[in-house]
User: Which sequence fits this backbone?
């Protein structure tokens, strides 16, 4: 009998490099779902070391940490360095709710010249740079799955989805990536 | 696909991000434990369902997740106006 259990990453071994598109699972990160009223933002921003954005679709980034505006009182905070975001928020006395979702979500990095076409295969948002500029972030849909899109470069998106949807989202991105090049 | 203007995201977003959430501006009776079964039925189950201009709750469930209100024409299927929850019903005429 095995003495230890090995944690298997949901997208272990999956990646795709095609003409104008590449898909790669992002490394592990710590994440929280943060809800807070306007009065708490200054204290939370100071503790997290970045200004929680208040404009729709905005994000803020500092070093390995980013905060994505999801709604008028809701942010997705991601730390690619694995910092203990729960401990940081626990030190803030101002009213807020922080839920650790580090293992609920994972991310897929989608990049390349055809990135907009590939994402638009199953996401109906306008992803042109004019409407969805670098740094923009939004919860939306990808086929039947809910995702969070975050544009990290002109030709690069960070796509967050729930772990249990990862196979579906990756498979659909992979299929879209293999479609005939325009 | 329809584009729906979300008053919280402040832009038009694809219909697939939204869910319909029933008729808007239905006031819950203050004395709900005292009203008759007939009054409760009217409050809880009976909806106006007109042809033409309707006021509805919608939720941007796969976006900012907020509930908001919309004036929509059921004949043309056009959204005439969307507004934040808690704001008064706008004065509008239907198209149909
Ligand atoms: Zn919205």
Assistant:
């Amino acid at each position: 009998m095995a003495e230890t259990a090995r944690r298997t990453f949901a997208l272990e071994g999956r990646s795709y490099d095609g003409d104008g598109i590449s898909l790669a699972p992002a490394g592990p990160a710590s994440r929280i779902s943060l809800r807070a009223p306007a009065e708490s933002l200054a204290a939370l921003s100071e503790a997290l070391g970045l200004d929680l954005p208040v404009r729709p679709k905005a994000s803020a980034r500092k070093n390995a940490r980013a905060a994505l505006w999801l709604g008028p009182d809701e942010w997705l905070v991601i730390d690619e360095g694995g910092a203990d975001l729960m401990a940081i928020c626990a030190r803030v006395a101002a009213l807020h709710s922080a839920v650790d979702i580090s293992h609920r979500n994972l991310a897929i990095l989608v990049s390349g010249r055809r990135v907009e076409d590939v994402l638009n295969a199953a996401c109906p948002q306008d992803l042109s740079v004019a409407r969805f500029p670098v740094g923009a972030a939004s919860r939306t849909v990808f086929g039947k799955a809910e995702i969070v899109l975050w544009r990290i470069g002109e030709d690069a998106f960070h796509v967050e989805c729930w772990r249990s949807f990862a196979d579906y989202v990756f498979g659909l991105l992979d299929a879209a990536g293999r479609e005939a090049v325009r | 696909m329809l584009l729906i203007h979300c008053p919280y995201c402040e832009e038009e977003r694809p219909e697939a991000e939204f869910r319909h959430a029933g008729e808007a501006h239905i006031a819950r009776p203050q004395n709900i434990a005292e009203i008759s079964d007939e009054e409760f039925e009217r409050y809880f189950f009976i909806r106006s369902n007109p042809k033409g201009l309707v006021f509805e709750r919608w939720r941007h469930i796969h976006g900012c997740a907020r509930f908001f209100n919309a004036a929509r024409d059921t004949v043309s299927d056009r959204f005439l106006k969307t507004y934040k929850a808690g704001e008064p019903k706008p004065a509008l005429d239907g198209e149909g």
User: Anything to note?
Assistant: Residues B 6, 8-9, 60, 63-64, 66 surround zinc ion (CB under 6 Å).
